[in-house]
Structures are given as structure tokens and as C-alpha cells.
């Protein structure tokens, strides 16, 4: 196995063996790195082995980014996150609440943890079986956590329902078969516009291209607005 080549999961460049201290791109902890790419990307052993919910919680709690697309892509590049899976349901509220926290919004204590727990209850395939994509419902979860809505609330409950509703419509417009990556992007796009319209909160909206198209056998390519080169 001496000549086996490994590639960076973040940028795809070749990994070189090293032995120096680097900061983990997920948890931000510094430890001795055994491999890195030319861009010095490093994933620590704990994050390499982390379960998806642990990885998302730790990464979001320590992230300083205001761009939810950037954070979602970083997390979705981790090998523990499959191309399509219910993990995307709780990824959406986690990255939205992180971006909101990082633009200065005051969130309830353990907001990201609460959002992950709620999103985990949405099973696989509910886009087709319930007419409710979990990523879209994740926008409602983020809004509910942000506004501290409950089933007894008035405006806060309405805002959470509206936020999910608008996201679900935007996901429906993507067409099928389902793509969890496109559903995440459409949910984030819808949430950014909802937050600006209803709360005057502005999150960065720059998004370049989907980095997952070549790994997704069901990618709709030119028919998807997030497709590489499809703009
Ligand atoms: Zn890299
Ligand atoms: Zn780490």
C-alpha cells in the first residue's frame, strides 16, 4: 500500500504525509496532523471518526461563518455524510442557526442541539411519502427555534409554518428525483429570502456551484440550477 494516493476530502488535492500542528477545519482544535494537502486542510481524528450529529453540532458551535451554504458544503464534504440521507434534515436548521448566531442574533441556549434533535425525528423519504421534504421542514425548525415558537404561539407559529411552506414550494420546483444536496441549497436560499423579508436579517447569499454533481448518479445536471457549470 506504500504508493497508495489519498485525496483531501475538502478540496480534492493529493494529501502529503507531514508531522506538524494544524487546526482541524471542523472542530478548530489544534493537533498533530499526519496528512495535509497543499492548502493545509486538516481533519482531526475525532472529527474523522465522528458520527454525523456529533460532527454537525461541534462544527456549528465552533464555526464563525455567516454563510450557511459554505458551512453546509463543508459538512456535506465529510465522508460520514452520504449523498442522500435524513442527515440533511437536521443539517439545514443547524447551519441556518449558526449563520444567524454569527451575524449577531440572540438564540436560545443550546439552540443548535435543539434543532438537531427536532430534525432527527423526520424520517427518510418524507418528500415523497408526506409531501414534506425534511430539509424544507428544517427551515421551519430554524425559524421556530429563532422565534421560540410553540403550538400555542400566534405570529411565531405562523412564521415557522410560512418558512417551511415557502421552502417546500421551492424544493418542489426543483423537480425529481429527489436530490438532498439541491434540497439543502433550495432550503437555504428560501430561508435567506424569508429572513430578509420578515426579519430584516441579511445573511450572505453567495453560492458558486454544487461540488457534488460528479458523485451523484442521479444528478439532474443541466436541469438543476445548482449544477456545476449550469448557470
Ligand atoms: Zn485540501
Ligand atoms: Zn476536529
What does this entry show, briefly?
The protein is mainly alpha-helical and 231 residues long. The protein has helices at 45-49, 52-62, 68-76, 87-102, 111-119, 126-129, 134-147, 155-172, 180-199; strands at residues 16-23, 30-36.
**What is the residue-averaged pLDDT?**
95
Domain count: 2
The small-molecule ligands in this entry are: zinc ion
Taken as a percent bin, the fraction of beta residues is 5-15%
Give a count of the beta strands, DSSP E runs of length 2 or more. 2
Strands across the major sheet, in which order? Answer: 1-2
Tell the overall outline. Answer: globular
Number of helices: 9
Largest sheet: 2 strands, antiparallel
Query: What's the SSE pattern?
Result: EEHHHHHHHHH
Low-confidence stretches: none
Given helix and strand content, the structural type is: mainly alpha
- The N- to C-terminal Cα distance equals 41 Å
Helix content: 40-55%
Q: What is Rg? A: 18 Å
Task: Sum up the structure in keywords.
single chain; 231 residues; mainly alpha; 2 domains; two-stranded antiparallel sheet; 9 helices; 2 strands; 46% helix; binds zinc ion
Amino acid at each position: 500500500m506504500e504508493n497508495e494516493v489519498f485525496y483531501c476530502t475538502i478540496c480534492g488535492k493529493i494529501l502529503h504525509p507531514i508531522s506538524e500542528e494544524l487546526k482541524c477545519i471542523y472542530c478548530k482544535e489544534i493537533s498533530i496532523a499526519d496528512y495535509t494537502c497543499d492548502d493545509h486542510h486538516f481533519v482531526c481524528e475525532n472529527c474523522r471518526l465522528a458520527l454525523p450529529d456529533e460532527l454537525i453540532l461541534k462544527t456549528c458551535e465552533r464555526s464563525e461563518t455567516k454563510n450557511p451554504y459554505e458551512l453546509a458544503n463543508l459538512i456535506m464534504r465529510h465522508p460520514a455524510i452520504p449523498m442522500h440521507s435524513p442527515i440533511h434534515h437536521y443539517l439545514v436548521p443547524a447551519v441556518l442557526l449558526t449563520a444567524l448566531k454569527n451575524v449577531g442574533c440572540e438564540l436560545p441556549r443550546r439552540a443548535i442541539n435543539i434543532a438537531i434533535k427536532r430534525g432527527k425525528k423526520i424520517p427518510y423519504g418524507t418528500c415523497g411519502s408526506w409531501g414534506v421534504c425534511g430539509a424544507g421542514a428544517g427551515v421551519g425548525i430554524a425559524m421556530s427555534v429563532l422565534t421560540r415558537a410553540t403550538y400555542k404561539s400566534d405570529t411565531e407559529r405562523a412564521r415557522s409554518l410560512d418558512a417551511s411552506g415557502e421552502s417546500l414550494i421551492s424544493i418542489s420546483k426543483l423537480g425529481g428525483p429527489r436530490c438532498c444536496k439541491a434540497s439543502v441549497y433550495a432550503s437555504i436560499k428560501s430561508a435567506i429570502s424569508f429572513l430578509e423579508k420578515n426579519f430584516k436579517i441579511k445573511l450572505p447569499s453567495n453560492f458558486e456551484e454544487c461540488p457534488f454533481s460528479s458523485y451523484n448518479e442521479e444528478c439532474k445536471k443541466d436541469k438543476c440550477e445548482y449544477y456545476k457549470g449550469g448557470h
